[in-house]
Amino acid sequence: MPLAIFFVALIPRVLNLGAFITADEDDQIMFANLFLKSALQGDWTGALVLGYPGVPTLVLGAIGVGLRYWAHYAGWLPLAWANADLMTTLDQVTTRFGSFEYPLDFLLWVRWPMALTAALCVVGIFLLTRRLLGRPIALLTALIIAFDPFILAHSRVIHVDAPLAYFMFLSFLAFLLYLDKGDWKWLLLSGLFGGLAGLSKTPAALLGPILVVSGLFYALFPAPGQPRAIRWKRLGLALLGWGGIAAAAFFVMFPSMWADPLQTIWRLVHNVISVNETAHPTTGIFWGEQQSDQNPLYYLIVFPYHLTPLTTIGSVVGVLMILVALVTRWRIITGATGDIYKMLMRNLPLSMGLVVYVVMFIAPVSAISRRGDRYILPVYFATGLLTALALWWLASLVRKYLPGLLHRLRLTPFRLVG
Fold it and tell me: Which of 17, 158, 223, 406 is deepest in the core (most CB within 10 A)?
């Protein structure tokens, strides 16, 4: 199953991969050349090319760039403009920072590592969700995320937003898996992915508050039959351990932190400040009105437009499912002890955590003056899982009260989870 999911996720990410180039990709290819040059020279301070810091994207891009140069120097795919040795060529193409003249020669090569990593992360989401919720919901979640158009589009280009999104969500799932199962390996894995998210882009700092609030839901609403004290103990240990693990992973996997940690941290902080004070080149017209994207409600308007019909319905039903679960739990409805009730109660903290994931990411990002729809890419992973949970709930209700209808829905998501 994981191998099948990998190829299902990979194929749409590599079809016609060189058909177009998006804004910023020429810059990202330049940054990959700079990172490769610094790495080959052992200049780890110079490896801090971006203030994002964008390390996973730089590494994957450098792998693609390095393979392209290797194909050139091996005589398989010559580059007409590269007439010197590798280091001289890297010096020449990186002299004019921000102006890279040959991005199309590298486009396929840098996109392939990004697409492969994205497909592997979809498999990771499936495996973690399977541990947490079982195979049917995990499979549906993986398929929703793999084929979400907005996620798909950004996970096949070289940029920092897709790595931020899937590393954040993997960390989120592993953290909740630790709270649910109590196995330390999940906390270690969550911290590792949290470190990778932080290395991808600074908004990963929002993951900390998201985990705290989601963890509180797990402690306040334990599954039927599970002592609340166990959840509180795990949450306390998780909050103490996760930050240290994520910080250690951030340091170990960030070469610039080895060379000059203070300067590196200052660069990251300075980048956040400058981003908030400087308008993006694309900042401006939105809905036909000049500078209207500076409206604090910008992302609340953008968010639903990137939902698919399925995730739109799933998000609405998911919120309804949470309300039903809360009312059911509060009123302790007589006879509410069946499988649907138990699963509804079990999934309540996760469902609430997914809503928190969306709200607690969009709200702070809305305070930053630089705007772009891709900046909220992480929230669509949360809506994907919430949709899967909502479809499961609907399918369970249909199976119980309208079993004949479910058999007619053979090729739908209802049938998959029902």
Answer: 158
Question: What residues form DSSP beta bridges with 286?
Answer: 289
Closest CA to 392 of 134, 125, 9: 134
List b or e across 319-354, with b for residues whose CB sees 16 or more CB atoms inside 10 angstroms. eebbeebeebbeeeeeeeeeebbebbbbbbbbbbbb
Are the beta carbons of 252 and 183 closer than 8 angstroms? no
Q: In this predicted structure, what is the pLDDT of residue 274?
A: 73
- What total number of domains does the chain contain? 3
How do residues 385-418 score in pLDDT, each as one tens digit?
999 999 998 888 887 777 666 666 554 555 555 5
153 found inside a domain = no
Q: Is residue 401 part of a domain?
A: yes
Report DSSP state, residue 79.
-
Instruction: Render pLDDT for 258-306 as a digit per residue (tens, 0 to 9).
Output: 888 888 888 888 777 776 666 666 555 666 655 566 777 889 889 999 9
Query: CB under 8 Å to 222, separation ≥6 — which residues?
Result: 228, 230, 231
- Side-chain half-sphere of 278: how many Cα atoms within 13 Å? 8
Helical pair 107-133 and 25-41, crossing angle rounded to 10 deg:
90
- Cα–Cα distances (Å) from 177 to 137, 244, 346, 355, 356, in that order, read 15, 18, 13, 17, 17
Alpha-carbon dihedral of residues 133, 138, 141, 146, nearest 10 degrees?
A: 150
Mark whether 208 and 245 lie in a shared domain: yes
120 falls within a domain? no
**Tens-place pLDDT, residues 104-133:** 899 999 999 999 999 999 999 999 999 999
What backbone phi and psi angles, to 5 degrees, belong to 306?
-100, 5
Cα–Cα distance measured from residue 145 to residue 155, given in angstroms and rounded to the nearest whole number: 11
Beta partners for residue 289, in sequence order: 286
For the chain, the distance separating the N- and C-terminal CA atoms, rounded to the nearest angstrom, is 19
- Give the contacts of 350 (CB within 8 A, at least 6 positions apart): 132, 133, 176, 214, 218, 385, 389
Q: In this structure, what token pair is assigned to residue 83?
A: 């007439």
Residue 286 gets which letter from DSSP?
B
Same domain, 417 and 284: yes
